[in-house]
Amino acid sequence: MELLSILLMMLNDVAAFEAKLDLFAQQLQEGNFTHFPVRLSQVTEPASFSPSIYCAYLRAQKDYFSSPFMDIKYLKSVLAFTGNPFACDIQATSVACGNLLCNTYPALIHCAVKILTCFGSTYLCESAFSAMGIIKSKKRSLLTDRHLTDCLRAATSEQQPDLKLLVKRMQTQISH
């Protein structure tokens, strides 16, 4: 679920950035230079300033920035429901409670499983690749495939060893 919350936070960050670009364009259109102090110092006569070029540029940047996230934005309500079903408006996401969910909305369940599988595997691949970059440094580049597999398994595993129990079970070597 942590990965899903990270994904929702990222989508919220994208939406916040888009809202900021809209705010900037609106303020420039109104002649408000609160967020553009350098531009304010360059404008000698506010009446001669034409904000249309800047507003068009900001809107183009918003469209360019938003295009990679269009598919995911349509699934935001599904992601929110999957992450925390009690915090979502059920009417807004068109989802019923209880056993009706599986029977009435099998496509939604199927979609949620696909989304979770997709981002989970992407996250695992990226974390494994990052761990491999750290493990296979210049000094340790001669690792065997088996040893590298073991190191990657230890690096990407979410299980935490019980060190106190391991130390307690360890047999100490008695001096000769």
From TrEMBL:
Keyword tags: Signal
Which stretches are transmembrane? none
What GO MF terms are annotated?
protein dimerization activity
Q: Any keyword Signal?
A: yes
Keyword Signal present in the record's keywords: the answer is yes
* Domain HAT C-terminal dimerisation positions: 103-148
The signal peptide here is 1-16
Q: Which domain of life is it from?
A: Eukaryota
Q: What is this protein called?
A: HAT C-terminal dimerisation domain-containing protein
Q: What is the lineage of its organism?
A: Eukaryota, Metazoa, Chordata, Craniata, Vertebrata
